[in-house]
Specification:
The protein is about 45% helix and about 10% strand. By secondary structure, it is α/β, with parallel strands linked by helices. It has two domains: about 10-50 and about 335-360, 5,6-Dimethylbenzimidazole Phosphoribosyltransferase, Chain: A, domain 1, CATH 1.10.1610; about 55-325, Rossmann fold. A six-stranded parallel β-sheet has the order 3-2-1-4-5-6, sandwiched between helices. α11 (about 260-275) links the parallel β5 and β6. α2 (about 30-45) crosses α13 (about 315-335), α4 (about 90-100) packs parallel to α13 and α5 (about 140-160) crosses α10. The longest helix has 19 residues, at about 315-335. It starts with 9 loop residues before the first helix and ends with a helix. The relative contact order is 0.18.
């Protein structure tokens, strides 16, 4: 990957921590909000950090593996849900509207194209009309993987360049099966550890899905030693590859990238395997009910902000977490210091090396 992501600036992380010690509260009293604030400052290299504007990117594509009956829903639902995103009636729209977030939707490879004119719809970047059935061969060619990665990067560069926090979402019937196969290959865990019921499979459907994932990993000879782009080509999805590209482009532009559920977190893990410095820009929005999600978050060494037993996808959990990130930025930029507020410090407080107003002005 040609693009190089700058690592988080740990000097700014330290300066942010020192400044937080000046705020009118017991040291560390806001817990993980303070950690999010330090992450923002280290990413943006300033104490005047911003978490707005924020947006959610929903990439849609279909999967050839759906022909194996691994989903409780028919493949037409992918395009039908995209229509609902554009109409503003899906869960991600409802949740994003509360925060004033744009919902940008792109077709990376739907079987049935959606013809619509909408300022936040990208219909012309589809790489193929779905992936191939990865039980019978690779899901994608290397050229398709490269094109999907480039498409994700292009959307961020051309449509979302002013965004400071980007939430990642997806839609694609069959994509939890793809994500399970990817997670098994990337982590070395068996199918049972990373495969869930997806859209609500019954017991027989779940056992069949486990078999499909196991067979796919074995057929392609996948393991944690397999190059990540080869894993992606073997059992991945066009929208997953697009999310990898979007995450890389966003981090290169010093945005925080908020992972949603299982599928976007697998994309995050692939992105980190390609660009290790990207890890510092990731935030786990929540932990879903999919068992593989916890496995992938552990591989990423990320602790989720929320745990609400959600399993919808489409960026819904990531959007909820954006509010916390924006609150962390508000604490850094709007909360008073002890000196400014005339509040007495703890009697055992150590003297500061620098005045807080001097630090903030940098």
């Amino acid at each position: 990957m040609a693009m190089t992501i700058p690592p988080l600036d740990w000097d700014w992380w330290t300066r942010a921590a020192e400044y937080q010690g000046e705020l009118i509260m017991p040291r560390g009293a806001l817990g993980r909000l303070l950690e999010l604030g330090r992450q923002l400052c280290a990413a943006q290299r300033t104490l005047a950090c911003r978490a707005e504007p924020a947006a959610v990117l929903v990439l849609a594509a279909d999967h050839g593996i759906a022909a194996e009956g691994v989903s409780a829903y028919p493949q037409e639902v992918t395009a039908q849900m995209v229509v609902n995103y554009l109409q503003g009636t899906a869960a991600v729209n409802v949740l994003a509207r509360r925060l004033g977030m744009r919902v940008v939707v792109a077709d990376l490879g739907m079987k049935t194209p959606v013809s619509a004119h909408h300022p936040d719809y990208v219909p012309d970047l589809a790489v193929a009309r779905g992936t191939a059935n990865f039980l019978h061969g690779p899901a994608m060619t290397p050229a398709e993987v490269a094109a999907a990665l480039a498409a994700g990067r292009r959307i961020v560069a051309e449509r979302l360049s002013d965004v400071r926090v980007l939430a990642l979402g997806e839609m694609g019937i069959g994509n939890t099966t793809s994500a399970a196969a990817l997670a098994a290959a990337l982590t070395g865990q068996p199918a049972e550890a990373v495969t869930g019921r997806g859209t609500g499979l019954d017991d027989a459907g779940y056992r069949h899905k486990l078999h499909v994932v196991t067979q796919a990993v074995q057929r392609h000879g996948l393991s944690p030693a397999t190059p990540p782009l080869s894993v992606l080509a073997a059992v991945g999805g066009l929208e997953i590859a697009g999310l990898v590209g979007a995450a890389i482009e966003a981090a290169a532009r010093q945005m925080l990238v908020v992972l949603d559920g299982f599928i976007s977190s697998v994309a995050g893990l692939l992105a980190v395997r390609l660009e290790p410095a990207l890890a510092g820009y990731l935030v786990a929005g929540h932990r879903s009910r999919e068992p593989g999600h916890a496995v992938v978050l552990e591989a990423l060494k990320l602790r989720p902000l929320l745990e609400l037993d959600m399993s919808l996808g489409e960026g819904s959990g990531a959007v909820l977490a954006v509010h916390l990130i924006q609150s962390a930025a508000d604490v850094m930029t709007r909360m008073a210091t002890f000196d400014a507020a005339g509040v007495s410090r703890r009697l055992d407080s150590a003297p500061r090396r620098e005045r807080a107003d001097q630090i903030r002005s940098d």
